[in-house]
Amino acid sequence: METIKQSGPTDAPASDAAGHVYRKITLRLIPFLFACYVLNYIDRVNISFASLQFRQDLGISAAAYGFGVGIFFVGYILFEIPSNLLMQRIGARRTMMRIMVLWGLVSMSTMFVTSATQFYVVRALLGIAEAGFFPGVVFYLTLWFPSAMRGRIMAMFVLAIAVSGVIGGPVSGLIMSQMADFGGLKGWQWLFLIEGIPPVLVGIMAYFYLDDGPEQAKWLNAEEKRFVVGNLAIEAASRESSKHGTFWTAIRDPRLYAAAIAWFTVAWCGSVINYFSPTIIRNSGVSDTLMVGLLSAIPYAAGALGMVLINRHSDLKLERRWHYACCVFLAAAAIAALPSVAQNWKLAIGLLAILSVGYLGSVALFWSIPTAYLSKKASAGSIALISSIGQCGGLTAPNIIGWTQQATGDFALGFYIIALGMVLGTVIMLIGLPARLLRERYIGHAPAERSHVESRIEHFPPRAKPASEAAT
């Protein structure tokens, strides 16, 4: 991996100002995007809690549930690339408002489902509505932050998965247990109604709160805007050798598909923790719905802590690939071990916690790898393409687990297949995207970089002169 460090003590003022600017951007953007992703994940995976009741109410089998969970990704996959390419043209404000309002409305409509067919239809529509949200945010962050910061920035954003698990489980369990039959509605119907309203309101807010890029940010002054844009211009110049002039040239690069295969298996991993952990906890001996929700928060809390520490270490070392690989291998080992503790809820939750550390760590780390390789012009479409191919894992994994569970009576075979696929996908990524292809740099303007870009950008703040120069 190519790393460009600051040139020495004379760059300290620049470094201090850089820290101030990026803290300002982080405090402005990340809390809001974080809240959006919490709502996104709750509405995507609350089906795992609703299934504890509605499967019996509607007579839906394990295989039918797995198919319904997976079909969400059909619409998601088909519309991710168009959504990101459109976002590149119309901006983040309109894109985020459209996505969040639509998914909130579709999520609420799930309360009216009365058959397996209707369940399939509403899940497919939810996938279409949500398409482009995650890759859109990944691309949006590349418009603000240099690659050396993206590990910790993505960790802050992906922390929303953990928070949604920590609060989503107990809240979902509480709604379903306390509001069952209130007003003539089942507990799972109230779940979809109550948790579908916030995304609509926050989506409308996104239109007024977000900016399409640094140039439009009224909360940055002119010098700060030049600094942010200039820092990204340096990175863009360092990747000119990748020859990714546009998305259409990038899609012919086999390395893109090595990354997509890796993301495919991360989606497999996510299916286990997001869609089957409540069932795993219940089958291990916990029957009370509220207690299942409370216990399901523990793995996500452990995962959040592990993810933050791993991504911080990755940023400090400016090493992505092996940090990512270790996370995936850890998660795969936990998945493979889960069937052996199926009747012990304490050990099951312990393994789910290890799985969560590996899963959340790999999700946050993964996107710092292709974004350190792709050119700016190719990023939006390429990120969406990788995400789309990868989300096929979310389509196939629930079906694999559901069908094998129905055929064998337990999760073991499905989990072994998932764990093996994760290891193979990671090996393919390590081979297909060697470290020498990644272009990352520490924050600051080193002299070696200035020579070929300073004619195109303005530097903020000005580099302090050494005392010997000042004297002359």
TrEMBL record:
One of its GO terms (cellular component) is membrane. The lineage of its organism: Bacteria, Pseudomonadati, Pseudomonadota, Alphaproteobacteria, Hyphomicrobiales. PROSITE patterns: MFS. The keyword Transport applies. SUPFAM superfamilies: MFS general substrate transporter. InterPro entries: MFS, MFS_dom, MFS_trans_sf. Keywords: Membrane, Transmembrane, Transmembrane helix, Transport. Residues 453-472 are annotated as: Disordered. It is a multi-pass membrane protein. It is found in: Membrane. It comes from the Bacteria. The chain crosses the membrane at residues 25-42, 62-79, 100-121, 127-146, 153-176, 188-210, 256-277, 289-310, 322-341, 347-369, 381-401, 413-433. The keyword Heme does not apply. One of its GO terms (molecular function) is transmembrane transporter activity. Residues 29-437 form the Major facilitator superfamily (MFS) profile domain. This is ACS family phthalate transporter-like MFS transporter.
